[in-house]
Amino acid sequence: MICVQHHLGANVKKNRHVNLVKLSVGTESVDDQIAWQTAWRLQTGQENPRHITRMWPKRGDELLNGGSLYWVIKGVIQSRQRVIGLDEIVGDDGITRCGIILDPEIIRTTAAPRRPFQGWRYLNADDAPADLPKGRTAEPDLPPELSAALADIGVL
Q1: DSSP 8-state secondary structure symbol assigned to residue 77
Q2: How far apart are CA 37 and CA 89, in angstroms?
Q3: Helical H runs in the chain?
Q4: CA 147, CA 113: separation in Å to the nearest integer?
Q5: For residues 72 and 78, what is the distance between their CA atoms, to the nearest angstrom?
Q6: pLDDT tens profile 121-156
Q7: Which of 1, 55, 60, 102 is 20 to 30 A off residue 89, Cα-Cα?
Q8: Percent of the chain, pLDDT > 90?
Q9: How far apart are CA 11 and CA 126, in angstroms?
């Protein structure tokens, strides 16, 4: 938390944040995402996963003020992870990139359909899907097509 506060600009209002939304390419379900990140942490010995991206968020102060990265799996936002930091990463090619440092906890959300896009997009806090109640997090994932259809009609 101290590290996050250090990054905040003076003009960011308390409790005002923005989120990011990103496609989780190759992921079939939230359970698949959890398994992949768990294996990555065991392999690398790092506690916090990082998502490496070419672009540095211009609204980084707002993102670090309580924002999350919302994951689109099979065309539907299904989970999120709190963003806890931004790191400058220089690749083997000498190009500087942004490492979005994530809390290891993956939080399931209500389903929200998303059309395909490249990179990441900002997601205002008011437009973000709600977290699933704790009692529902153990439920198996619905098939993506059914989850998207139910979200389209406002059931999920």
Answers
A1: E
A2: 19
A3: 2-7, 30-44, 60-63, 144-152
A4: 8
A5: 6
A6: 999 999 999 999 986 545 555 665 666 666 566 555
A7: 1
A8: 71
A9: 20
DSSP string for 92-136: TTS-EEEEEEE-S--EEEEEEE----SSEEEEEGGGSPPBPPGGG
Residue the block writes with tokens 């977290």: 131
All residues at 6 or more sequence positions from 100 whose CB lies less than 8 Å from its CB, including other chains? 20, 50, 51, 52, 53, 57, 69, 83, 86
- The contacts of residue 121 (CB under 8 Å, 6+ apart) are 20, 21, 22
- 96 is written with which tokens? 């500087």
Residues belonging to the chain: 156
